[in-house]
Model the fold of this input.
Amino acid sequence: MKEFKTLIIDDERLARQELSSMLSDYSEINIIDEAKNGEEGIAKIKELQPDLIFLDISMPGMTGFEMLKKLENIPHVIFVTAYDEFALKAFEVNALDYVLKPIDPERLNEAIEKLKTREESDFESDSSIISRKDRKLTAKDRIFIKDGEKCYFVQLEEVRMLESDGNYVKVHFGKSRPLILRSLNSFEDRLDGDFFFRANRKFIINLAWIEKVDNWFNGGLQVELKSGDKVEISRRQAIRFKEMFYF
Done:
């Protein structure tokens, strides 16, 4: 099992101690040092070349985001912060995860599992450090959703479909269906067509979730997803679908 050289960067000593204690349960996490601010964090990253940093965002003198901008080579980043309003920006700089304080052990475990999955799949590449604004989102990307008082951080491969609902888009994953104030067209522009397909005016489906395809009325198709949901592919889009997948 790969060992990850790890640096904790947080201006609160007790927060560093608590996180260090929680991480001691993970044999793959080797904490090599700590830093109490961004300036010290930059120096230790350059000196120690860690594989992973746990990074606070709100620190005196320099925020976590400002610190990352000053680095040429950025290790895996897991943000640990008391504020959820920075989550969207965190994922735009390709953070591996975003854990809120006080840290929940199960949530921390999820972050470590994501780290191992990312490493095993060799998903990290030169393109991964490019801002998400400059590329299409794939099934391996994660999105932050805030719907009223509820917040979600979901991997796109878990999203089986997106549904237009007036001025909103309903995101279907698990038993959740949060609403986002955006158009379905804006999602289509951002999502990689190798993973997501515009079925009709109302739905975008995750191709990996398709279980069955049937002929439908007027030359269209109907797909059944692994969840049991059935979505009609319009006649026009059925032509595209067949061109993409039929022998």
In short: The radius of gyration is 21 Å. Residues 122-131 have pLDDT under 50 and may be disordered. The CA atoms of residues 51 and 75 lie 5 Å apart.
